[in-house]
Amino acid sequence: MQQLLYALLTIVIGIAGAIGYFYGSNLLLDLIFPSRLADTAQSSRNIRRASLVRPWLFLGPAIVSLSIYLVYPVFSSVAYSLFDRAGTSFVGLANYRWMLYDTEFRQSIFNNMLWLIVVPAASTLFGLIIAALTDRIWWGNIAKSLIFMPMAISFVGASVIWKFVYDYRDAGSQQIGILNAIVVAFGGEPQIWITLPFWNNFFLMVILIWIQTGFAMVLLSAALRGIPEETIEAAVIDGANPWQIFLKIKVPQIWGTIAVVWTTITILVLKVFDIVLAMTNGQWQTQVLANLMFDWMFRGGGDFGRGASIAVVIMIMVVPIMIWNIRNARREMEGR
Q1: What is the pLDDT of residues 321-332, one digit of tens each?
Q2: Of 162, 177, 255, 176, whose CA–CA distance to 211 is shortest?
Q3: How many CB atoms are closer than 10 A to CB 37?
Q4: How many CA atoms lie within 13 A of 327 on its CB side?
Q5: Neighbour count for residue 178 (Cβ, 10 Å)
Q6: Where are the alpha helices (DSSP H) in the chain?
Q7: Beta pairing partners, 83
Q8: Alpha helices in 67-139 (DSSP H)
Q9: What is the CB-side half-sphere exposure of residue 285 using CA atoms within 13 A?
Q10: What's the predicted TM-score (pTM) here?
């Protein structure tokens, strides 16, 4: 209850602070550059000056926040990656050389590649299929709401839910895990699913796919509704069946949105941490880069150098995809 009160208090203070800042800063700007003067020329100059300053009043807090919480940590992480465990002695590229020969780091890279191949593809595919199907039924909006609902759950909360799905009890005991209950019902033996090497990675991926399918569905549904009806009608007149219309008419026209959804989920996958931490803590060959970074940075006394070097690797992998995503979005906006 106390945490809930703190959260509500934080929200109230944050909203009140934002309103107070924007109201107060605009009031101060109008006092500095008054627009209602007897001198018309001076009033015009003040209006122009205020117009130049006013956008920065809105951008200012965001720029300061990004500088403190994004730009500074980037340079700080790069600097720390060149120092030793305590962050005091310069070791150059020693931490990066260590990564090349560390088996756990190579396992993390392999697992991250699996996540990158499976999760964006599955989430985008399921989102596209659901978006297309729900647009054809009268209760489609209800279905979309239910499918989008997991987006409101934190990754840790979703992991707790899926822990019950994968739960294991000894053979002969009543299985409360849905998956083992189904296996036992068909005469099989219950399994500790999240401890099965290699396959357990896919069981963890299902959680993120379950969460992100709703995100993909919403964007792709909006894109499908934006397709001109004339193109679909022309395809129907030419004798195209529904499958051909979907694959050869609709999908090509929303390919830009599909790419944005795909790359957005890809960026999220590169930073995946909560699910692995909550489900396996990187055990049983499920380690990923973000969780490995956390282990080196904050556990066992902490190794700032190696933890920071892993963070830099994650950043290097994410930045090109972000740049491509932004350029693609701008290209689409210019096309419109």
Answers
A1: 778 777 776 776
A2: 162
A3: 13
A4: 6
A5: 13
A6: 2-32, 40-66, 72-80, 94-101, 103-134, 140-148, 155-165, 178-185, 199-225, 229-237, 242-244, 251-253, 255-270, 274-279, 289-298, 304-335
A7: 90
A8: 72-80, 94-101, 103-134
A9: 14
A10: 0.78
